[in-house]
Amino acid sequence: MTRRRDIDAVRNLSGDIWNVAVDEHQGGFLKRRDLLRYAALLGLTGFAASQGLGGARAAAAGGGTVRVGLGQPTKAIDPVSVTDPASIGVISQVGEYLILDDPKDGLQPKLALSWEANETASRWTFKLRQGVKFHDGRAVTAKDVVASFERLVDPASGSSALSAYKGILSKGGAKLVDDETVAFDLDGPNSNFPFYVSSDVYNAVILPADYAGDFEKTFNGTGPFKLESFRPKQGASFVRNENYWGDKALPDRIEIKFFDDEQAQVLALQAGQLDVIPSTTRLELAIEGNPNFKLLSVQASSHDQVHLRTDQAPFTDKRIRRALALTIDREAVVKGLLKGRAIVGNDTPFAPIFPSADPSVPQRKQDIAEAKRLLGEAGVPNGFEVTLTTERAYDIPDYAVIIQNFAKKAGIDVKLKVLPQDAYYGSATFGSSPWLDSVLGITDYGHRGTPDIFLNATLKSSGAWNAAHFNNPAYDALLLDYSKARDLQAQRLVARKIQTLLLDETPAIISYFSQYSRIVSSKVEGVRFTAISHLLLDRVSFVQA
What we know:
By secondary structure, this protein is an alpha+beta fold. It folds into 4 domains: about 1-50, no CATH class; about 60-95 and about 225-290 and about 520-545, 3-Layer(aba) Sandwich (D-Maltodextrin-Binding Protein, domain 2); about 95-215, Dipeptide-binding Protein, Domain 1 (Dipeptide-binding Protein, domain 1, Alpha-Beta Complex); about 305-515, Dipeptide-binding Protein, domain 3. It has 19 helices and 23 strands. The protein has a 5-stranded mixed beta sheet with strand order 16-15-17-13-18. Strands 1-10-9-8 form a 4-stranded mixed beta sheet, with helices on both faces. The protein has a 4-stranded antiparallel beta sheet with strand order 4-5-7-6, with helices on one face. About 45% of the residues are buried.
């Protein structure tokens, strides 16, 4: 905790809202890390820097080529429409955001130097960093920033960020104030808006105003590396950007190879052909105990959400939804399936890493007797049969089997329908997507730095990802209250109401929040990544033998 004599020095930096956070920190309710994150959210980047964050890093020996294995991109790599982890990893080498959501230190200035909100948090103003150039030599101006966000919120652009911005930012909301300043007039108050222009919305890469959708031709961004060569379906290589606005990258080159099979990645790593690969539970077993490799992890809000379609039998009755949730032994799932690299969830998107989450809400635990009682009360004492539809990806098929086995204990007969990932998502629109149309399903959701996107997109009545078809006016009203709350105490009061409502209604089961990991050769140091697939390699150096 910040020492008492330091408290007065950090008070009054940003009025009453900041002082509430300081009081919570002083009272032991807010960790130092979360205080720093909250400072960044309010735009107090100077305070974060004074605590040793966001400043220049010490010089380190560089050179060499970092070799990376990634999965196969699912389509042409375009920041506007990208969704897959491999493409995000590639874009990370060349593209940048207004703000980086660092897994350790929270929101950190990148192309934006500072940001602040008006009194109602309905308008946010960002000051831009000067001297930044695209790889083609053109200076980055506010016009490029405005065009980048107008493109993302345009329904005609093919933007994958529309689901994140729905109800938050609409076309015409990004406005040029001057060459160094951009303002965002929101659809309504939102105290967490800086997360929406950060790396958490991975499509929000700043591109030239005249971007024509041809990213693979030049990979023209502002990042620490620039394109050397790109080979569709094979890989890409990047070289140090000598004109980068910040500290120059340490490695000379980044070499990325695409793989169709994850096992081939770990074999290439073991053969010394790669330095960094993604991680899964199965791959971790292959390198366990081997001193030549290390597993790097960051805690995340990533989760596999089980949706229960509230508008179709048998899940129109919330007692039946609660009964299924009560069959799951969450601790066993974390220890067994996830090898302890996760945090137990409580059937709401409020991961424990979110400062606004209320930890006093009782944790749901396995209770087979209560599950059977609820089934009897709902008129199905002998259980029922239901099909669980999901994707063949990551650990999800194994999780589906675990759910199936737990459900049997209460007499619920779960049939499994596991589809290829692209078939499961379909067109990602209601009426033509097993993801959004199935009665019971499991969907993987990547990390976000704030619960807002999960709360709005997956459970709001009008949410673009509302696979549960949950329609609850009380819940929708609470979301508005949460977005208006300006300090952590106010947010936590609303969060408790949301958490309590979702436990009662149970439109979704969230039994864990996963860590995000990478497997790295012991010969390299300085590999950083976010929990949403960004791969940051500019500080990588090689260990001398």
